[in-house]
Design the sequence.
């Protein structure tokens, strides 16, 4: 990349024009044919190169965890770049852009390789020595001495990994050298292996009193650049190991909560199983009881969902980091040193149980959520059955009341026929009396007596026709 920060604008434009003019026309044509993501995707596989190291060297490696401070990914990335910017500013060096994931610079007394990851960023400081030093002296002359104390104090509470590495040039392993390693790291905690058919790795994976873990990498017969690749793998094993273990506290905190939820679910399930079929007159009480149990199960479902939200990302990340640890160990191509466990054996014995704990808690969490869901479905079915029984009882009551109303209506209907016939016959009686008073030969009593059955039959038939038009059946109610 070409930087022209101090060149005048017109001169910069002229220089760019000359550079473009010097390019072959085919290069310009081919560059315009590229997909917008071709170049960045092709550069991605080269975005994290290893340091070029040659013995004797010493390194200080820091992994700075930022996810605890902020949850937004953009805020995490900004915080990581701000930490790097403050370090570069102290030495008067231009920091990379906010989109950079990798940065390398030679500060003179030391070299820095910075990498930006999703949850953390790593700082690897490397310093060369003119001659081999004994291990104690080499660990006393690490690049950390050149780092400003103010910047180190700004990392308070954020450092997840801090390690010193000594790259030493030596001959094949001898008994005195093995004894020296045992004295430095301890006989019971020593881990070592021959690797890449030309080197050795020694450590104890313990944090020393100065707050740093220690690694010794011996260059017996490395080919070119093997030392840099090996040290990067060793540091990645240490970093990913610690990041994988972040899931263990979550698993330990969740285990008693899951036990408590399981106990409550067992009691609720026993309550559901112990309830006998309820008589119909007790249906409202049964519905209220099962509704209360349903509310408790919904509360358990909410609690297990909250645990899943709190733990799912951490458990998934731990498994991803654990797989990376295994991959890096496989790249070491370890060969056993008699009497000393290899890095792979150490991780299998110390790290794998912790990861298995995370896996078992995650599976237990999922299984408990499924059991709660099944219990919830079962209880909802029972509540639905009780509600259907209540509805059937209500419908039966409504049918009974409708039958009573129909019988009452039919009784009233008979009285209505009598009343209407009575008043109608009375009207005809008054008419006949009036005609008799005017001199017509009409007997009012005879007319009333003759017309009364006709009037009653006509009223009854009229009511039947009205009921038929309204769709009312005269069938006997059940």
Sequence:
């Amino acid at each position: 990349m070409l930087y022209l920060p101090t060149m005048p604008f017109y001169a910069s434009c002229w220089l760019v024009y000359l550079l473009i003019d010097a390019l072959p026309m085919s290069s310009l044509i081919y560059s315009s044919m590229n997909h917008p993501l071709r170049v960045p995707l092709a550069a991605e596989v080269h975005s994290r190169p290893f340091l070029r190291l040659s013995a004797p060297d010493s390194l200080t490696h820091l992994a700075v965890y930022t996810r605890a401070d902020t949850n937004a990914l953009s805020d995490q990335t900004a915080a990581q770049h701000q930490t790097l910017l403050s370090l570069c500013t102290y030495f008067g060096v231009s920091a990379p852009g906010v989109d950079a994931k990798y940065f390398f610079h030679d500060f003179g007394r030391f070299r820095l390789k910075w990498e930006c990851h999703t949850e953390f960023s790593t700082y690897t400081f490397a310093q060369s020595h003119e001659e081999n030093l004994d291990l104690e002296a080499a660990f006393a002359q690490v690049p950390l001495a050149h780092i400003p104390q103010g910047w180190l104090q700004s990392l308070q509470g954020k450092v997840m990994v801090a390690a010193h590495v000594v790259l030493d040039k030596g001959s094949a392993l001898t008994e005195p050298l093995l004894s020296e390693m045992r004295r430095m790291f301890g006989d019971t905690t020593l881990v070592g292996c021959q690797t890449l058919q030309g080197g050795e790795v020694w450590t104890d994976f313990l944090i020393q009193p100065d707050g740093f873990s220690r690694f010794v990498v011996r260059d017996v017969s490395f080919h070119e650049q093997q030392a840099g690749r090996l040290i990067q793998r060793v540091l990645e094993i240490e970093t990913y190991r610690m990041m994988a273990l972040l899931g263990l506290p979550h698993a330990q905190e969740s285990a008693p909560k899951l036990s408590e939820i399981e106990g409550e679910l067992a009691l609720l399930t026993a309550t559901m199983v112990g309830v006998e079929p309820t008589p119909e007159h007790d249906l409202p009480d049964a519905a209220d009881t099962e509704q209360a149990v349903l509310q408790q199960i919904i509360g358990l479902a909410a609690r297990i969902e909250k645990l899943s939200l709190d733990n799912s990302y951490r458990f998934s990340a731990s498994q991803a980091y654990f797989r990376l640890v295994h991959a890096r160990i496989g790249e070491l191509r370890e060969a056993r040193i008699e009497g000393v466990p290899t890095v792979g054996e150490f991780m299998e014995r110390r790290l794998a149980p912790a990861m298995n704990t995370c896996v078992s808690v995650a599976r237990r969490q999922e299984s408990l959520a499924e059991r709660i869901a099944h219990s919830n479905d079962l209880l909802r079915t029972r509540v639905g059955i009780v509600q259907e029984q209540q509805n059937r009882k209500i419908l039966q009551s409504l049918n009974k009341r409708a039958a009573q109303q129909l019988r009452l209506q039919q009784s009233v209907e008979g009285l209505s026929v009598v009343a209407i016939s009575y008043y109608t016959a009375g009207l005809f009686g008054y008419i006949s009396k009036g005609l008799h008073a005017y001199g017509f030969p009409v007997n009012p009593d005879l007319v009333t007596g003759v017309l009364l059955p006709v009037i009653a039959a006509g009223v009854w038939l009229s009511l039947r026709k009205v009921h038929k038009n309204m769709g009312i059946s005269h069938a006997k109610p059940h």
